[in-house]
Amino acid sequence: MKQKMDTVDDKVEEESCHHFWKIEIANGPISRGKCKYCGEVRDFHNSITNLNDPRRKSNPLNLPKMSKVKLDKGSKS
Fold first, then answer.
1. CB 24 within 8 A of CB 32
2. Which of 17, 46, 62, 67 has CA atoms 20 to 30 A from the CA of 25?
3. Residues 7 and 14: beta-carbon distance below 8 Å
4. Nearest-CA neighbor of 46 among 33, 29, 25?
């Protein structure tokens, strides 16, 4: 029974790391990062692909046309 509890405690310790990522200098689309505390390695994207996609067809500066509005006779606008 004691061995089972030790195994569970070890697993909790691994999951409870508050990572402090040391990430390589950006050189390409992905940089490798390593946790300063537990040594976990993870890949990080250097850009947001949705915003930087050159194939995107919509232009954020193209706004929809405003509909015409009729003013009331008593309006001072």
1. yes
2. 17
3. no
4. 29
The answer, as to whether pTM is greater than 0.85, is: no
Burial 10-26 (b: 16+ CB within 10 A, else e): eeeeeeeeeeeeeeeee
**Where do the domains of the chain lie?**
19-47
Q: Name every residue whose Cβ is closer than 8 Å to that of residue 23 and which is 6 or more positions away in sequence.
A: 31, 32, 33, 44
- CA-closest candidate to residue 44, choices 8, 7, 9, 19: 19
CA distances 29 to 3, 9, 17, 32, 60, Å, are: 44, 37, 27, 10, 24
Quickly count: other Cβ atoms within 10 Å of residue 65's Cβ.
5
Distance between CA atoms of 77 and 69, rounded to whole angstroms?
12
Query: pLDDT tier at 62 (50, 70, 90 boundaries)?
Result: confident
